[in-house]
Every structure is written in C-alpha cells, then in structure tokens.
Amino acid sequence: MFSKRLFDIIASFAGLILLSPVLLFIGIWLLLSNSGSPVLFRQKRVGRYGKLFTLVKFCTMKAGHGGNSITVAGENRITPVGRFLRRYKLDELPELWNVLTGEMSLVGPRPDVPGYADKLTGDDRKILNIRPGITGPATLKYTNEEELLAEQSDPVKFNDDVLFPDKVRINLEYIENRSFLLDIKIIILTVLGRR
How far, CA to CA in Å, does 107 sit from each of 62, 169, 174? Predict the structure, then answer.
C-alpha cells in the first residue's frame, strides 16, 4: 500500500512549489490591505497523540480582535480580503507547510484547539492517533459551517451540542475505513468544492 506519509510529503512539497505565485500574491494582498494585521495567523492546535503544534494560515481577521474559537459568517472581525479567502478556503493554503513538516496530513480530522480536544473521551480519543488534516469527510460535510452557525441563536451551544459530536462521529468512521483511494476522493471533492 502506498505510504500516506510519503504521499503527503510529495503532494505538499509540489503544492508549495506550484502554488508559490498564489501564496505570494495573497501575502502581498494581505500586507497591503490588512491594516496592521499580520499576513500569517498562528495558533496552537492539538495534533497526533495530543501533542500541540503551531498551525499556520493566512490571517483573515482584524488585528487585536476579541471573540472565541467559533467563527460565524458575517462577523465584523473578518476583513474584506479575509472573507474572500475564507469563502474559497484559500486561507488554509499555508497549512501545506504543516503537512510537509509532519504535523498534519492532507486528509484527516481537522485539528482542534486544546479546549475542544480535551472533550474527547474513551474511544473518541482514537481521533488523536492519526495526524490531523487540511481536509477530511467532516470538513466536506460542513463546508458551510460559518453560514450554518450564523443561522443559530446560540452558535457556541449549537457547535458544542450538534456540530462537534457529529464531526467526532464522522472522523471515527473515517479512521475505521480510511484508505489511499478514499483520501484521493476527499482531496478531489475538496478541490472541486463538492460534498
């Protein structure tokens, strides 16, 4: 069976090289328009075996914004450029570096912030036995997560009571059935913007 890690290394390296003009363009665009916000956003996330790592994304929010880890569509802390990048998931492209360095995989459960990962108990903690991913089956199902949260009267409660448990279920199902061909399918669906 083709090694998942070997594929991650080859694909992330190729992606960083091929997408370097896009990454550079977005970086300059953010530098010129983000009004003091950094170009890159760094945040501690929980990775494989519960080890913390620094996830890198393009910065899509205003400098010094408050708020929690739940982002709702239409929030005024999101910059105009950030809104565009988030809509097309372009803010995630720097995570290819996290894949190349071995902290993430192209496909897997999205890495949570420590507070949410701490909620995993029992068999649910199997999610922490594999590298987190840029995309995955739960990511595909909830591509419209920010819009869905915006429709709720209490987005945090909805996330905690509905979305988070469903993502755990989907991710456990992925772990039980994962294969190279399934990963390729998920990557293709992600690129095409389909579920």
Answer: 29, 16, 10
